[in-house]
Amino acid sequence: MLLFSACKKDDFTSEQWSAKAEEKKAEIDKLIASEKCENLNEWNIEKVNNFWCGHVYFPVHKRFKSQFNKLWEEYLALRSNEVNAGIKEGIIYEPCEEYILFNSEPTQLSCVNGKAKLLYIKDLSLSESKIRIAPLKIKIDKYLNNLTCSGTENWGTTILLKDCGVEHIAYIRTAERPEIMKDIALYNSLKKNIIEREKPNCSTGKYTYPKGVKCVNNKPVVELSE
Questions:
Q1: Same domain, 72 and 130
Q2: Is 182 found in the same domain as 137?
Q3: Model-level pTM?
């Protein structure tokens, strides 16, 4: 008599599901790499929902777009199974929090050595980063200077990166994500790129966090606590 033993899907651990998801991701990367990049008009930047937060981007050729979509759906299903198994194991998953806003969108799609490649802000040179950040700083400063405070606004706070440390700033919450948040995310990504290249000599300061926003002379001021 032959006895067969196999794991049911419900018996897979979160670690096993994670490994399967990584295998599926490798399958997606292999699919993209299998297509030679010669004509950029045949490629698109595909923006897809990430499992947890935000989006992720891939260079996708028209020839395998449907296959890519199928593989990505399978990848998301595996990540979902991983989390479900993890919850049963007692793992606590933290919700997504945007403590510091960054821009994750690619800046360019290129053919590099016959392979499609997405370039991001981190790939920009120091000089290019400084050129791009200058008009953003002017735009953000103008937004902040035009803010007034009467005590009835729905205020939120976010962070601007500095050469050393951060600056907590106020913004008005709206039903849709305020347009200024996109500028702040792009600014922070460029600033991070500049800081990583210039490596300023910063001393360790005190950690502060925002408690709220108060009105001082009709202007919003972020209250901080250590």
A1: no
A2: yes
A3: 0.80
